[in-house]
Every structure is written in structure tokens, then in C-alpha cells.
Amino acid sequence: MTRWSARPSGLLALAFTAFLAFSGHSSAVAQTPTSDPRPEVTTPAPTAAPAQTPSATPATPQSTRDDGYVLGVNDRVRVLVFGEASLSGEFLVDSTGRLAMPFIGEIPAAGLTRRALEEAIEKKLAQEEILLDPRVSVDLLNFRPYYILGEVTRPGEYPFTSGLNVFNAVATAGGFTTLANQTRVMIKRQGETTETEYSLLSPVTVEPGDTIRIIKGAFYILGEVSRPGEYPFSEGLTVQNAVATAGGFTYRANQRQVFIKHRNETQERKVRMNASLPVQPGDTIRITERFF
Q1: Radius of gyration for the alpha carbons in the chain, expressed in angstroms and rounded
Q2: 111 and 138 fall within a common domain
Q3: Do 81 and 133 belong together in one domain?
Q4: What does pTM read for this prediction?
Q5: Does one domain contain both 209 and 155?
Q6: Residue 119, domain CATH
Q7: Other CB atoms closer than 10 Å to residue 244's CB: what's the count?
Q8: Tens digit of pLDDT for each residue in 49-68?
Q9: CB–CB of 114/77 below 8 Å?
Q10: Is residue 10 assigned to a domain?
């Protein structure tokens, strides 16, 4: 009796022990995280958008840098209309100050810089609806000539070159004559109506279109001298030297006073004679007769 009743109790204990063991295993399994068989996906951090690179556009052709040179009559220029050979070419600024160009006719040029002329041609091409977006370049080919007159060996018209001064111009024209004033020069710039006198103690710059006049360096001596007339001027000349050049005083001459008229004056002045009295180019000296 006792043995039969003990078997069920042992079975029950065994079953209870197995239950506890199973429950503990399940709990451990539940606490262990399951691994995800899928690979981990890493989201990249946002990055700044790459800088926009401007699309390449054709470079606009540039004209020769504007140096302030003002075009005038007889200047020769090359006009280049980009992409249009039929509109391009070499042109002379004519006596009216204009360029005669194909398709658009005459364009005023005298008095304009090269850049201003480019803009004028571009505007005309657009206004005439010849080109939608014209681009024009103007280059100077030949400067207008200069003119040299007066006391030089070969007066006339000569081509201008950069860096020209009056001494270069005189040399090109064969040099001074014997009567030339080599210390002063008269120049009329193109566009001006009057001459300006310049000293030649330092080189004087010549500009395109200038008219240079080399004046006489002579002086004139009249009255009571042996050989009155016109004589070449030289630096440092005095009235006493001038009288000697003209052969000296006559016996009737008043040697105490002299009358002098400078080139730009209208009336002569009475001056007391002295050994250092200077003479200027163009002076007229008059020696009067003395009273006994």
C-alpha cells in the first residue's frame, strides 16, 4: 500500500521539477535578444549640395584699351565686326570727319575715341536691324599727318609717328634754315583756331594733325647803320652786337638811345643804349639820327 502510493508522489515530483526547468529555459530565451538576419542599413549624413559651376559663355571680344586718343580727319582705322567679314574693313576718316561703311552708310568719327566709335557702330547696326547683338572692335592703323611750315628746308605734310617732338619733325623736314628761330615755335593743334607759342629749350611734343610753324629768328635793324636790313638771330645777341653786324653806326647816328619794337608789339619803345641791351627774335631795331 505504502509502495503504490509513493510512486505517484514521486512521479508528481519529477513532473514538477521538469516544469520548473522548462520554465527557466524559456525565460532565459525570452531575455536574450534575437539577432536580425538583415544587414544593418546606415543612412548617410546629408552633405552640402555641390557648388553650381556657371555654364561657359563665349567671351565678349574686347576692343583695344581706350587710351583717350581722339580720332580726326585722315586717321585710318580697322573696323572688325565679329562674325561679319562683309561689314569689316579698313576705313579713312574723310574730310567731313566720317567713315563710309557698307550697309550702314556714313558714321561720324572725328572727335570720338575708339571706344566711342565702337559703340556708335554697334548702335547703328542694331538700329538698322542688320545684326541682333553686334560686337565691334576699332583699331588705329595710321595717325593723321602733321604739317610743318616756315623756316625749314622742306616744309610740307609728313606722316606722324608715336613719340614725335618738334626737333624730330624739323629734322625730317631737312632742318632749320639759317634765319630760323631755334628757341621758339608756333603750333596750332587740330581743332583749334589759334596758334600757341612754345619754348624750344626742351623738346615740345607733336600731336597728330598739328600744324608747326618755324618762325624767323631774324632781327631787323634800320636807320643810321652802315648796312640796314634783316639779319639772323643768335642767342645772347645784344643791340651793340646787332649794330656791329650791320657795319656799325653812321657818323650821324645817335649812339645814346635806340628804338626797339618786339615782334608781337604794335609800337616801338625808346630805350637808352647800353652794352647789355638784349635783342629778341623778330625785333626791329631803329637807330635814329642825332641832333647837333
Answers
A1: 52
A2: yes
A3: yes
A4: 0.58
A5: yes
A6: 3.30.1950.10
A7: 12
A8: 444 444 433 333 333 445 68
A9: yes
A10: no
User: Which domain CATH number covers 279?
Assistant: 3.10.560.10
3-state secondary structure labels for all residues of the chain: CHHHHHHHHHHHHHHHHHHHHHHHHHHHHHHCCCCCCCCCCCCCCCCCCCCCCCCCCCCCCCCCCCCCCECCCCCEEEEEECCCHHHCEEEECCCCCEEEECCCEEEECCCCEHHHHHHHHHHHHHHCCCCCCCCEEEEEEECCCEEEEECECCCEEECCCCCCEHHHHHHHCCCECCCECCCEEEEECCCCCCCEEEECCCCCECCCCCEEEECECCEEEEECECCCEEECCCCCCEHHHHHHHCCCECCCECCCEEEEECCCCCCCEEEECCCCCECCCCCEEEECECCC
pLDDT reading at 101 higher than 50: yes
Q: Residue 33 above 50 pLDDT?
A: no
Instruction: For residues 228 and 147, give the distance between their C-alpha atoms in angstroms, rounded to a whole number.
Output: 34
Confidence of residue 4 (pLDDT cuts 50, 70, 90): very low
| Cα dihedral 110, 197, 201, 153 sign | positive
Is the residue at 28 inside a domain?
Answer: no
What's the grid cell of residue 30? 525570452
Domain boundary among 163, 181, 214: 214
Considering the domain boundaries, does residue 264 fall inside one?
yes
Residue 204 resides in a domain: yes
Mean pLDDT, residues 85-100? 94
Same domain, 134 and 92: yes
Range of the domain at 241: 219-287
